[in-house]
Amino acid sequence: FVYSFQRAVDPATASPYAWYMEYTKMKNAKDIVAGKKDKSELGVKAVDDHTLVVELDTAVPYFVMMMGHTTVKPVHQATVEKFGDQWTKPENFVGNGAY
What we know:
The protein has 5 helices and 2 strands, in the order αααββαα. By secondary structure, the chain is an alpha+beta fold. The chain has a two-stranded antiparallel ribbon with strand order 1-2. The mean pLDDT is 93.
């Protein structure tokens, strides 16, 4: 999830849903999207293999519901790095969907 969240706010990725990450109020998301801070400064970290900690700039009562959006779904880092913008092609795609 850390890689996916950082990828979503990274200006180099030019994600069309980067604005959504700003609305989550994750720490530094707005500044990262604006190119003022590095994606590594996003308020998200994996404490261990089963624990994700997300730091927010302000309380967002509906934050958990926002985590159901496609923008915050995990992407397979090794696949993205290997295939670049071709990672979503059926022959390359690695997902974790319901089917």
